[in-house]
Amino acid sequence: MDIIFLSEVKVQTKLGVPVWERLLPQTIILDIEIGYDLSQACDSDSIADTIDYGAVVTRIRDTLSTHSFQLVEALAEHICQLILKEFGALSVKIKVAKPAILPGLKALGVVIERNKG
Q1: In the prediction, which pLDDT does 58 show?
Q2: C-alpha angle with apex 78: 74 to 81, nearest 5 degrees?
């Protein structure tokens, strides 16, 4: 299986357990690996034979602008399912990081991986 990766994608969403934390959008950082068979795209050199990563980023930003999550786990699952179902990915691995959310902590987050299935 081949991998399309999107590194350090900055997006805005409302995320956090305390209600006050979900009042205003905050920046989160995503690292995404999308499993897909890229052999046809390698031969054809056509965007129609791969996953349009620009469309993926736009779709993620759109959905996160209208959703609110308490847990980074729920946000990560939401994005994985979106990519699997809407873009036909074979697998998705995502790292969701909330930067500088606690004093002395660079970031916190989760890494999850889901397969089509």
Answers
A1: 97
A2: 135
- Domain boundaries of the chain, sorted by first residue: 2-115
Residue 59's pLDDT is what? 98
Residues 12, 27 contacting (CB under 8 angstroms): yes
Determine which one of 14, 93, 95, 98 is catalytic. Answer: 98
The CATH architecture that domain 2-115 belongs to is 2-Layer Sandwich (3.30)
Q: Model pTM greater than 0.85?
A: yes
| 48-102 confidence digits (pLDDT tens) | 999 999 999 999 999 999 999 999 999 999 999 999 999 999 999 999 999 977 7
Contacts of 110 (CB under 8 A, 6+ apart): 72, 73, 76, 95, 96
> Is 98 a catalytic site residue?
yes
For 51, left (φ over 0), alpha (ψ -120 to 50), or beta?
Answer: beta
